[in-house]
């Protein structure tokens, strides 16, 4: 059985994106909630505290139906789309970053300009990242750890 | 089969400690490496960014053989020992915190004075916490994420 039969298309791509990010020294976390009502596909924390957000889009309709992505820009230093080779990249805004990949890996085709977070926002995102990742890990080992992630 | 047959005594206690911490709003992470050569049993990140370290000691010899614990004080706002009811608590330094527990839970018997980290140290520990937790989680889902935790 292929893993593709058990993961949604966006999550297959997120796996390749995670490999790309870790090869660049970034620690990836999927399904991060930066604020109530927002959930990003992948957030990544770099070796110097850099914060990237990557939205994985499996199809044109997956992109056009996303009403929230501009809200993600406030929570990262750099924002990327990640798509597979069949995606019509011309419909994506040109100032965001672009990763091309599949379930096995990804590469950065366009590195966006950095728009650094304020120190206070960076601190809040890093703390939220740390707590959500640790709680998710703790719950895998012990379902009785029941503090809400957010 | 009891879980106690598959976990070392300190790790059994760490599970109860994790439950106690999460009930207080803290996200626990086991086996955190704050700096090369140091590894703490449990670190926890509070809702306001507070950083606690908890060392789990299963026996007198487990405590007396620990040459490194004073080095942990530099990496947290509050430091606790966690022991089970059979432990001779009179041998523990009285200015550290004390948790009493088992594999199912724990409670704080003595809350230590806070010795707040500097802002720079807190930032570094929080970033390290976030990266180590996320990488461990990512590797559970994908063994090909192979960035070193530290």
UniProtKB/TrEMBL annotation, chains A, B:
Name assigned to this protein: DNA repair protein MmcB-related protein
Organism: Roseinatronobacter monicus
Pfam families per record: MmcB-like
Highest taxon of the lineage: Bacteria
